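Risk register update: the risk of archive-format incompatibility is retired. Evidence:
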Amino acid sequence: MAVSKAQVAKIALSFPGALEKSSYGRPAFFIEKKFFTRVRDEDNSVVMIVADMQARDMMLELDPDTYFITDHYRDYPSVLVRLSKITPSELKTMLQRRWERIAPKKMVRAQISSSAAVAGEVARARRATEGVAKAKTKVHRRPLRSASRNTSPVKRGRKTKRRK
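Archived output:
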């Protein structure tokens, strides 16, 4: 169940644009130039920046054995996560949310489209192995109305009041 420092590094660096470099003299992970996460040796935890203070407070309240903060992080939307209390898949999910918020939008779109393509390939392979043929559906379209014919019940134009 526990996550090691090597697993944190492997998971963090698996995201597109991830770099390992120093932050205030300590090793940390960045997505391009934005802080992603870092391991705290003092208490064997990982620093996670969350969406807002409400999300952080909810995490602290729901599972205080896993999530905690120190005085340093009190005024920031950050939470510390004990590595001994999470699994690698939970860490990856948390980092995935963070990555989607800070990665360049073009990079996020490319990742989503490649994930969708992989999912499509898996689905096609599954259908082929199960012998299920893809059903063809017929698209029904209505004929377009003439542009000159106004069928709208709302009159166009502006009504003005007469002044006496």
